[in-house]
Amino acid sequence: MSRLIDLDELGRFSAGARVFATGAGDSPYHLALDWARSVAGKGVELVTAGELKPETLCVAVSLAGSTTALGEHLPRGDEPERAVRALERRLGERAGAVVALNLAAENALVPLIAAAMLRLPLVDGDGSGRVFPLVEQTTYALGGMSPAPLALAGGSGELILLETEAGRVEELLRPVVLAVGGWAVVACYPMAAADLARVLVPGTVSLLIRAGTPGAPRSAAAPFGVRRLCRGLILSVEGSTGHDAEVSLPSQPSSIVLREPDGMRRLVRLEAHNEIVLALADGAVVATVPDQICMICTGDGMVVDVDEARPGLEVDIMVVKAAPVWHTERGLALGGPRAFGIAL
Amino acid sequence: MILGVVLGRPGPVLVAVMDGVPAWPVARAAARTAERACVALDLSRSRTAPVAAIRVGGACPEALRPVVSRGVATIVRGGHGVTGRPLAPLDTEAVRRFAATCGLADFAVTATGSTMLADHELEVAAAITAEVPDARITLSYEFGHPGLREREADAIRNAGLGSEAGRIADEVARELPGVPAYFARSGRGLVSAHYFRRYPLACYRGAAASLERGRAALGVPVPDDEAAAYGATLGRPEAQVERIVQARGQAELDRELQRARDEALTRVVSAGAAPGSARIAETTVNPMSYLPDGLYRVRVIGEGATP
Predict the structure, then answer these.
(1) Averaged over B76-94, what is the pLDDT?
(2) Given an 8 Å threshold on Cβ–Cβ distance, is A27 in contact with B150?
(3) Which end of chain B has fewer surrounding CB within 10 Å, N or C?
(4) How far apart are CA A289 and CA A311, in angstroms?
């Protein structure tokens, strides 16, 4: 049954989308929220994929690139609309609904902004159930859908259409995103509602609205389960130094080393490549992708991004279980440790 | 003797600190013999002046435009991307027109990408000065952190506090002639009166920060103002630099870090440290997520001792 995401629900949705979101600084988050509020009008219609006519063209909309770049180089405001319209022109067909690629902070708000501007419904679900760094790391791809053709709108008025075989989208997208300023809005994975219903992680938008309700437990944002790995004090961030020592080059991927202050006092090492990919405790693997590993600041309860980690900060390491499809053989191939170059 | 001062209601509260031991009250004549005065204040209820805000960047949704509670704002073309690439040539003519007609003297300038490259903010400052010779100008890059709107809001708040900060610094100088004055920062540390006049926002919650410090050092049974005045005397000159830098390889990163450290040391001295005492207290380098290798967030904290 369709319903409306009004301004109140928008606030809860964005709060819920932030509970476990990494890569979302304050600045881009508030920017996306202010932007969404300004275009939401009376509200955005939320539908399930099954409620749409099976042949309805659905388009995934997301931010691509760096949210830090978005917070610095502001959008003109027409990017979501331009990206979707370009894809429609290429396909010769109007989009009937918008869906999210993933629902991490800004990535949850940008499709809502697109839906509001285009006066289209937003589909209750997403292509991840968590967030992965690559446009191709989605349940849509796992279900056989192609991200291309893909339209990209940049913050200085750029518009680019990518058409290629499915496996090459990321490789072509990266330099383009950088060339337009480090971020862009993409419209991709054009597919019929019947296909979307088969490949999406359903119900995650309404789940996050509930999770963002004041007083809701943190676990409400983790439908497949969440566990606390440990509490730890950050000792060092590779390439970072506390007291005037020589700085070594922090090549990406980077590492974060923590010590448990109590209990087993284990030495915990987090290996990050845009996101935290692997957690080791005293040398033993304790968590890996596709589950999501994140640091929550014990002071303010907010997620600490990899590029905000600093010695002296006390964090809880939380592991959010990924949707079951990510733990299948194909899911692991696309979003497991090997996809990040770790042979485990 | 070091003098701790809380500027509050109804009048200033003074604490004299000798060999680490606080004593009060302090006679006016005695106060004027202090080797330095450390002032803690709370600017959150201070009068603010109307500000002329200039953003350098592109068009944006109405909801994301500059916010000035008192004053006027404009957006002029220009700015740089996060990789330092110019987005558009700076529209200097638009800056001149705005500066000449806004009728204000407190300016806040925020350019897109200025944490990477501050050239356009510096050019805007030059253009303003050509039109309004006595302008007081806050440049956002001096606050450093990424996030255009937050940096802009900081620059606007700082610009609005400029005249009040000048008045306070004048008053302290009049009351304590010949005594070097320092002001407590919101976090930790102190800045010189000269620095305070330019960056009053750094001391926005100096009284609260000093109170926390003073209480921790003294234990409970001390009135708040006296504890805060004592807390202010415990700080040392401190300054921070935050930048986004681009570096291919170790040598370039080392050079960029050295540049950031040099700037931090210069700032610590400007914040009142004896030149020989300035040192780097902390350097943090983090690669930026979702951008190609070679872009880093660099934060440097410098500190020093009072002369």
Answers:
(1) 93
(2) yes
(3) C
(4) 24
